[in-house]
Amino acid sequence: MSSRSSFVRTFGALFLGATLASALVACGGGSGGGAASGNADGSLVGKAAPDFKAETVSGSGPMTVKEANGKVTIVDFWATYCGPCKKSFPKYQELVDQFGGDLAVLAVSVDEKDTEKAKLEEFVKAADVKFAVVWDKEHSAADAYKPPKMPTAFIIDKGGVVRHIHAGYGEGEEEKIADEIKALIEK
Hints:
Blueprint (H helix, E strand, L loop, with lengths): L2 H25 L7 E2 L18 E4 L13 E7 L4 H17 L3 E7 L7 H11 L4 E4 L4 H6 L6 E5 L5 E6 L5 H14 L1
Parallel strand pairs: 3-4, 4-5
Antiparallel strand pairs: 1-7, 2-5, 3-6, 6-7
């Protein structure tokens, strides 16, 4: 093997590895996110959840954080290109079904504004969820929350305060979230 082809092979393998690692971090793949001590800059835990308005895509329930006041709420930032988001959506619906009227989910798409709305609607239909789904076209909600990766779930108590953050989604994540929700409902 020539040194040129060895270089090309080595460089290609390194480039592919770096590209895959970058994609997994950006989209929350890998070993799962777990509860984080804060958002990207660590500033939201223990503080009032920022309210925002975004374009309705589908679903029912509160379409803003303010409308969800009095319920434990999951504000979940997601995107159609995110593989872990496809896994988390059905699990969030199971949580809504489990906790009934005590839990609201507000799923916030951060897909770019040139994305066709039908693409978001297809994603939601495939996930078979009924909770509120909105589209943050201008990324004003994402700017306020600063989710470090997709998906990122902000768990908000009944008084509107951010209590937990789950950056990324891995198998079993919903069990940790369910325990947090239960504790917040019982407060």
